Every structure is written in structure tokens, then in C-alpha cells.
Amino acid sequence: MSPTYTAGSLVNARGREWVVLPESASGMLVLRPLGGGEDDVAAVFPSFEEVRPAQFAAPSPSDLGDQRAAGLLRTALRIGFRSGAGPFRALASIAVEPRAYQLVPLLMALRQRTVRLLISDDVGIGKTVEAGLIVKELLAQGEASRLAVLCSPSLAEQWQGELREKFGIDAELVLASTVSRLERGLELGQSLFDRHPFTIISTDFIKSTRHREDFVRHCPDLVVVDEAHTCVAADDAQGPATSSTSQLRFELMKRVAADEDRHLLLLTATPHSGKESAFRNLLGLVRPDLATVDLESPAGRARLAEHFVARKRADVRQYLTKEDGLADDSLVERTAFPSDRWTKDEPYKLTPAYRALLDDAIAYAADRVETAGLQGKREARIAWWSVIALLRSMVSSPAAAASTLKTRSESAAARTAVEADALGAPLTRDSSDSDRLEGMDVAPGAAESEQGDPRLRELAARAAELHGPTSDAKLKDLTKHLKSLIADDYSPIVFCRYIPTAEYLATHLEKKLGAKTRIAAVTGTLSPQQRLERIEKLAAEDADDPAVRRVLIATDCLSEGVNLQHAFDAVIHYDLAWNPTRHDQREGRVDRYGQKRDQVRVITMFGEDNGIDGKVLEVLFAKHRQIKKDLGISVSVPDETASGVTDAVVEWLLLHGRQGTQEGLFELGDGHQESFDRIEREWNSAAEREQTSRSKYAQRAIHPEEVAREVTAVRAALGGSEEVRDFVLEALRDLDAQVRTATPTGRDGSGDFAAQVGGTPAGVRDGLAAVLGGRIVEEDREIPFRTSPAIGRGEAALVRTDPAVGALASYVLDSALDANTPGPRPARRCGVVTTDAVTIRTTLLLVRYRFHLTLPSRTGERQIVAEDARLLAFEGLPSRARWLDDDAAAALLGARATTNTHEQLARNQITRTLDGLPELTDHIAEYGVTLAADLDASHRRVRKADTSDRAEIVRGLKVVPQEPSDVLGVYVYLPQQPAAVSASPSSSSTVTGAEA
Q: Quick check: 875 and 862 in contact, CB under 8 A?
């Protein structure tokens, strides 16, 4: 009969050691390799294959390491943990090291029975990582079993990549383009959302009634909504910009939120969108009572604070400081955001030929609007949108102008004036709604029929003749600006409004910017996946040549969703958007966390004599910039506000032509002046509400002291960034890699380095090739190791969760445990060091503990086996051990050999200590019990069930140590004796500090 194994016990099977997991049943063992992760779990049937109890072998006295052996082994062990015993189940198994401030939403979530959060941190702070932490934690704890992320189509692939690469969650893309394929694989009556537990769903997919109803019926228990402000509408919203699409989303979200047991995370950098009622509707999705709670009262704000977090960059640039209420700055975390944007408005003047073409186009537009106004409201609206399309494309580029002039207007097919607005507005306006970016970069049409107007055909022919820098001053000036940026070692993105303009620029800029400049264009003609592939190809081209610069030409299909800070560091707005929010979106692609430049450059090009750009810049952008300067935050411009201004600009232009005065814009009559006054009031009101939100409703549910306490605990269990950097540097050198150390001149004050691993053992090369790419290792390229967790392709981050660091730690640990491993072995399980750091014989133990955790959840108790590594130290012999505290034990890792140790003396000392290990068993076990109690308290503290309705969050929680623990390393430190100073370093009977 097979023996019975309890959860957490150690067994030997298939030639290796395993930990028995709680999921085991009679006749079947569910096992995880010692030090392995969830992906390595296997089922073993003792009736069919041999399973026997495993005893962790004691270290061998003949396999002595040097003075660094203990630290290297300890760090390698901790890096390998994928099931830590602390209250954050996810942190040990993700491939990103979160910033301390990113733990705040996670702490807020763990204190809620059903997680409902509105995360409104500023652009570039890391809302995706914050949401991913919560998602991973809820899945790891068993609080959720299925996930759906709702986002715009342009964000879907990025979400999929972030979840897979950073959090190990493989989510299926549910898009309009993939749904047919996915549905073909379903069984009869099976829902897409039952078949695929983790999905990323584009908002255009759920526009279909059938798909929408299926989603509601089978909605997962955890839903994340990105750009959540687009899923609600203000109570007084009107017009095509807030039509049925927004209302459909809002109705859907109300049905999703109606299930009180469903976890819901709403993400948006602009929770107000300029409307108080929209903000209230958003809060109502979090909790219905928040829609009406009195936010002017302390009680109301405290209620909101439990579910709402909104921080600016300034709030987190330096975090956990004395200014945050901590006793000192020992835990301060500095996040390397770019310090500021260098911005400049660059005017250009039309050439005579282009000016004449534009004047004729304006005259045609004025005639057409006047004529259509006499024909009826439908005809007037069709003409209006056609004219806007004509003028916008005309000032964009001759290529866009020619395309628009030869194409039939979308609105021409409308049967009513309302339908004309619905068709014409999306293609000619610059909505701040990112869901409307897809497909909006095509050049709009201006013709009323397929045959077109003879005047339009004549204008199109003239536009086609203006290609090139001779006739197109805008293109000529762009070339000058690009050369200036490239000369200053910048790699810019050029944003255009229309596809023909982007393609036109790519054609004419080729070979105009120097032999070391690479150019690529990305537009809506490519699928989202193809866009990413083209960007990655551009970023990787001649990546080894530091002199190579890159220029990306893009339409607004990239102004949201795709993060480009690793490859680009400047933005040129070639086409002035008609909503400043769109410029914020564009600039946010490079001005965000992970940008290596301290200063991002932004150039806004505008035509000072085209009659449009200058006025839009003066009226809309000047106000937007002033608000941002005054408040320190960017306030989203409501679409109706921006369109009201630009409509007035176009009307003014049609009446006065290009030569009218700026003041004339505000002399259109009392009606327009009243409209401008209303816009001014609404915008100021939106700015005031946003400022109030950021101050009055600032995150106060989690005090920085609480974050500091948990950060300290996490670092004690898993290690900090400095420990990881030292480990990687020392291990690579010991493994015969060629390491080139950089000087610590980076913005964050840390030191990056690079390594070539061609000379390392095959096991090291194979491990790194699997995570960094085979070519990098095979061709012995330099691998950059960055102190920042934000890295590019082919680089490694010096954090414990980076896959390359994990591969290196795995080799160091495995080679330490196997004395027969060929080649260099940086870590050993034993060591004897003579040092002046101690005055009495002192022994350091590296002990691995296992714990059986019982975690309560809404669906019942969850049984987990977790691991922890601790340092224990004592003075004297094992029989009369005087135990030191944790700090003193950790300090021994820094002890260095001050003289050589006689070889026989070293063997005698380590043998004596190993023989005495049984006498230490009781204390090691007692330490495990104390550690279990500390972990239990930590779990309860994080969940902080301070009210009766949340008591179940901690009811039944248990942490029990699993005996016996494993003594992985034993290191003896001998005090330096005066007689030892005369020992000959070259004597064969001594062991040097590098060998002891």
C-alpha cells in the first residue's frame, strides 16, 4: 500500500524532488518541483510509478565555496520562488517588479469582498500594471476564475501582450475579425465565454445584439474596462459624438455591474470628460450608492476613497518619503518619468502656388455651402461635412487634398440631416474617444457624386502637381525639423491626420535624412498586429549601431494604445488636430514611464497663413495649455467644445477668407459670442471639477506607511533590486561571461551593464536563449541589463521576476545543489571564512521553509503550499548556540575574508558544524512557527477586515509550517587571530578567500 503524503511534504519521483500540493487525492499526487512554478505542476500516480519520501541531503564538507557563496545561493533561491508565503500571492510569479505606488490599488482591492475600483491615475503611470496585479492576485487566490477585458480594438493586442508577457495570463482576442473563427470551434450550445476563460473583447464586437446578450449571460466574474469614460455618457449629452454607441455601452455596463458579486475594475485617466453627470454615472457603475453620495461631506469622500484612486506624476515621482509621513527616506522610490516636455510651435507659410490653390478651394467651399443652404437642411449638412473634409485635407498635404477631391463624401449617402451628421462627423472631427480612432485616418471625400464636380477635378489635378518640397513648404520645413532632432540624437514620431499624407511623407523623406536614418510608416491600412510588427522591425533594424536614428510616420491609429517610449523620444504634430486631447494622446505614447530621455521634445507645425491652423491653435490650444500649466494636469476637452470652436473657425473662414483678421473670429454676431462664452464657462468648470477631484478625492484609503510596511515585507521575502543587480553581476562574471560595466550616470542614478555570454556553460546559454532569443546568444551579442524594469526587446531588467534573471538564478541554484555540474559553479552549499567581521565563531544557516496556507474566499477555502527562505545565525558551537537576530544574520552576508583559512581547519570546522545540525532542529522549527505567525498577521493586516460585513475576508485563514524544513547552506565565520596574519597566502595547505 502506498504511503500517505500530506500537503507540503517532500517526495522523490522521476529523478527529482517535488512538493506535494493540496489538490492531491487518493491514489494521485499533484506535485510541484522544488523551487518550480505553477507551469511545472504534474500529476503522479504512485500505483504506476515510484514515489518515495525525500530527505533533503545535508551539504558536503568537501564542496566548499568562497565568501560570496551564501549570498549567491540565497538570492538564487529567492528569485526561483514562484509561490511565496506572503499575502501577495501574485508577486512571486509575475515578470514585472511593480513600483511601490502601484501596490496601492492592490491593497485597496484586497480589503473588499467584491472588488470594485475606479483607477484614474495619470497617463503613463501604469494603470495596466495596476489592473494586472489585481487580476493576477484574484486569480491566484481563487477569488476569480474567469476574466474579460473590454477595450477599443486598437488596444486589444497590447492588452493581450501585457497580460501574457508580464502576468502569465493567456487571453483570447475576441474581435470582429476573430469571432467567426472562434465560434467555429464551439460545441453546440456552448458560449464563447465559457470556452475561453480569459478574453480580451473589443467594444466594436459587442455592438452586435447577439454578441452583447451572449456576453451578459456568460459574463466572467472579473471584468476590466479600459478607457472607461467612453462607456458612460453625460445625462445631457447630445449630437453625433454621444450617439447610440455611448448609450449602448452604458446600458451594457449597467447590466454587467448589476451583479453585486462580480469584480469590476474601471480604468481611465479622464474620469470626468468635462461632465459632472458622466463622472457620477461612472461612479454608479462602481457602486450604485456612489452615484448620489454627498461628495462634499467627509463621510461621502471617505466612502468614495475606498473605491477611487487618482494620482498625478508629481504624486509618485518620489514616493515613500518623509513628506509622505514616513520616519525617514530609507524606502524612498524614485520613478524615472521624463522631467518635462520641450515644446515649440513651428509656423510655415504656403508657397504661392499652394496659396492660390487653397484660396480657390475656400471660394468653392463658400459657394457650395451657400447654394446648399437654399436647397434644404439635408443638403446643407452634406455640404458642410464635405467642405470641412476639403479644407482639412487641403492643409494636410497635396496627396490628401487630391484624394479627398476625387472621392465621394460619406455624408452624401445620407437620407436626412441627422444621418449626414452621423456619417460626416467621425471622419472630419477629432474625437477624444479612442474607440473612434480605428478607420478614421482615411482621407474623407468632398464630392457629392461618383462623377464629381468639374471644379473639384480641376482642383485635384492642381493639388497633384504640388508634390515635393519645392511647392510644399510644409514638407520642406518638416525635413528641416527632423534633421535638427536627429542631429540631437532624437528618434521622432511624425503624426499625420490622413493615410495619404503619411504615405506621401514616407515617400519624399526617404534618403533625405541621412544614411543612418531608418524610416517607416504605420497607418490604418495595417491591422493592429501588423502595426506592432512594423514598429518592432523598425526598432530592431541596425539595433547594434548607436548612430542609427529612427523616424516613424504614423496616423492617429497609433495615438492611443501602443506604447512607443522604448524606441522613440520626440513627437512632431505634422497635422494640427482639432482637439488638444488628441495631441495629449499622441505625446503620451512616448512621454511615459520607461522613457529613457529626461526631456521629450514636441514640435507642433501650423500654417500661419492658411486661415485655419493659427486660429485653432490660438483658441483651443492656448486655453488647453494654460489650464495644464495652472493645474499641473491635462483636462480632456469635451468633443462638443472642440467642435463648437472649429465650426466657428470654418464659418469665419468661409465668410472672410484667409486674409480676415483674428479678431473677426469673435465678431460673428451675438449668437456666436454667446456660444464662445458658454464654451469658456464649460471648460473652466470642467477644469475646476478635475482639480477638485484630484485634491478633495485624492487617494487616502491606503496610507504610505501601510505601503512601506508591505514593501519592506516583500523585499525581505523576495529580495530588492540592489541584491538582484549584485547577484546577476557576480554570477555572470563567475560563469565566464564578458561583462562591460557602465558608469552610473543614468537619470535614476543606477548603473546598467552589458554582458556577452558566449563563453558561459551551455546550460546558461540555453536558458538565456529561451527568453531573450536564440540569435542574440548564438551571435554572442551584448545583452543590456537595465536597472529600470521598463526594457526593450533583447534587454533584461535587473528585477527578480525578469525571465533572463530567472534563468541565471535557476542555473546557479541547480549547479550549487549538484556538485557534479561541469564548469564554474558560483554558489556552494558550504563555506568557511576567516574574517574580522566576527569576534567569535559564528555560523550562518540558509533555511528553506514550506507553509501550508488556508486562504478564505467567496467560493470556499483554498489550500496552498508556499515557500520562504530565511537566514539564521548563531555564535559558538551547535551544542551551545547563542542565536542572533535577523539583522545580525543578514549582516554576515557582507563579511569578507581578511586572511586565508587553512584547508584542514576549514574541513574540520564545517564537518563539526554539520555533525551538530541535529542539535539545532528545535530552534529551526520554533523559528518556523514564529514565521508562520508573522505571515498570518501579515495576511490579516493586508485584508484589514475592520467591519463585520468584511469579516469573511479573514475568517478561517491559517498559516501552518510544514516540517521538516530544509537546511540548504551552512557557512562558518572564524574570527581572525593574530597568528593567522603570518600565514602564507601561497601555501597549499590554506584555502583563500576566493576558495574557502
A: no
Residue 402 near residue 463 (C-beta atoms within 8 A): yes
- Contact call for residues 115 and 265 (beta carbons, < 8 A): yes
CA torsion, ordered 786, 791, 795, 801, to nearest 10 deg: 80
Amino acid in position 65: G
Residue % of the chain over a pLDDT of 70: 85
Nearest by Cα to 105 from 93, 95, 92, 119: 119
Q: Is the peptide bond before 964 cis (omega within 30 degrees of 0)?
A: yes
The residue whose grid cell reads 483554498 is 862
d(CA 890, CA 212): 57
Sign of CA dihedral 909, 914, 919, 922: positive
Q: Strands 29-33 and 16-20, how do they pair?
A: antiparallel
How many whole angstroms separate alpha carbon 557 and alpha carbon 577?
13
Residue-wise DSSP of 426-464: HHHS--S-GGG-TTTTSPPP-BSSSS--HHHHHHHHHHH
Helices (H), 619-668: 622-631, 639-656
**Residue owning grid cell 518635462:** 340
**What average pLDDT does the chain have?**
83
Please count the residues of the chain: 996
Rounded to 10°, the helix 580-587/622-631 angle is 60
**Lowest-confidence segment of 190-204, 285-299, 624-638 by average pLDDT:** 624-638
pLDDT digits (tens, 9 = 90+) for 61-90: 988 988 888 889 988 888 877 666 778 878
Categorize the per-residue pLDDT at 618 as very low, low, confident or very high, splitting at 50, 70 and 90: confident
Contacts 24+ apart (CB under 8 A), 687-695: 687/627, 687/630, 687/631, 687/635, 689/272, 689/276, 689/279, 690/272, 690/631, 690/633, 690/635, 691/631, 691/633, 693/120, 693/271, 693/272, 693/279, 693/310, 694/310, 694/312, 694/631, 694/633
Residue 446, pLDDT score = 77
**DSSP readout, 918-967?**
GGGHHHHHHHHHHHHHHHHHHHHHHH---SGGGGGGTTT-EEEEEEEEEE
Cα angle at 147 between 146 and 149, to 5 degrees? 165
Position 662 confidence tier, pLDDT thresholds 50, 70, 90: very low
Cα 510 from Cα 397, distance rounded (Å): 17
Residue matched to cell numbers 463622472:
279
Q: How does strand 10-13 pair with strand 52-53?
A: antiparallel
The pLDDT value given to residue 633: 64
- What DSSP character marks residue 84? B
Q: Which residues of 564-578 are buried (b: 16+ CB within 10 A; e: fewer)?
A: bbbbbbbbbbbbbbb
pLDDT tens for 386-404 read 888 888 899 999 999 999 8
Instruction: Determine the average pLDDT of the residues in 359-383.
Output: 83
Q: Give the pLDDT mean for 812-835.
A: 92
pLDDT of residue 695: 56
Which three cell numbers, joined as nine digits, stand for 484?
535638427
Q: How far is CA 825 from CA 132, 151, 741, 847, in A?
A: 37, 48, 22, 20
Q: What is the pTM of this model?
A: 0.78
Radius of gyration of the chain (CA): 32
What φ, ψ does residue 466 adopt, rounded to 5°? -100, 10
Question: What angle in degrees, to the nearest 10, is found between the helix axes of 398-405 and 352-373?
Answer: 30
* All residues at 6 or more sequence positions from 124 whose CB lies less than 8 Å from its CB, including other chains: 313, 337, 588, 591, 592, 593
Kindly provide the b/e burial profile for residues 201-222, where b requires at least 16 CB atoms within 10 angstroms of the residue's own CB.
bbbbbbeeeebbebbeeebbbb
Tell me the mean pLDDT in the region 234-242: 53
Rounded Cα gap, residues 378 and 619, in angstroms: 30
282: left (phi > 0), else alpha (psi -120 to 50), else beta? alpha
Cβ burial of 15 (10 Å; 0-12, 13-18, 19+) is exposed
d(CA 969, CA 972): 10
What does the alpha-carbon distance between residue 523 and residue 899 come to, in Å, rounded to a whole number?
67
Angle, helix 103-110 to helix 127-140, in steps of 10 degrees:
40
